[in-house]
Amino acid sequence: MQSAGPLLWLLGMAALVAALAPGAWLLRALVARVVGARPAFGAALWSVVFALIVWAMLAVIALMLSRGSAVGSGAPFLALAMVLSWCALSLSVRLYLPDPAGLKLPWPRALWVSLAPVLLLWAELLAAWWWLMPRID
User: Fold this and answer.
1) CA distance readout (Å), 101 to 40, 79, 97, 105
2) CA distance 23 to 59
3) Cα–Cα distance for residue pair 2/119, rounded to 1 Å
4) 57: pLDDT confidence band, cut at 50, 70 and 90?
5) Dihedral sign, CA of 39, 45, 48, 51?
6) What is the percentage of the chain residues whose pLDDT exceeds 90?
């Protein structure tokens, strides 16, 4: 990737935004239902991108802490990664998608609002993995 030109980087970023957009649209709709006002799509997309960054940091910490344990690989770590991504998106919702009065959503509402987008994004990831894995070999 270091030798990739600017066009390849732009295509990669466009693919990432295209992959995260359905989760952002769903998040936007669910937040609109909860708070009564529809946030901007850019704010919802930024919430998903920020959650992805926070989740990556949390996943690395979880990998370091669970090294050599039963939770360190396989299905238990996938479940842990899903829960961490749910927490990261909930934090992002609280930070970047306030209600119309500017107040942060309470944690139970932020967790509830972010559950469906997290499941959708994980379904996209698993579907892409299922589709790409036989073609990589």
Assistant:
1) 15, 35, 11, 11
2) 20
3) 32
4) very high
5) negative
6) 56
Long-range contacts of 1-6 (CB under 8 A, 24+ apart): none
DSSP state for residue 69 in the 8-state scheme? S
Residue 8 CA to residue 27 CA, distance in Å, equals 29
One-letter amino acid for residue 28 of the chain: R
How far apart are alpha carbons 103 and 7 in whole angstroms?
Answer: 40
Average pLDDT over residues 90-105: 91
**Residue 77 burial class via C-beta count within 10 angstroms: exposed 0-12, middle 13-18, buried 19 and up:** middle
Kindly give, in sequence order, each residue whose CB lies less than 8 Å from that of residue 90, ignoring residues fewer than 6 positions away: 107, 110, 111, 113, 114
Q: How sure is the predictor about 67, in pLDDT bands with cuts at 50, 70 and 90?
A: confident
Quickly state the pLDDT bin for 77 (edges 50, 70, 90). confident
What is the model's pTM?
0.86
Tokens linked to 47: 């919430």
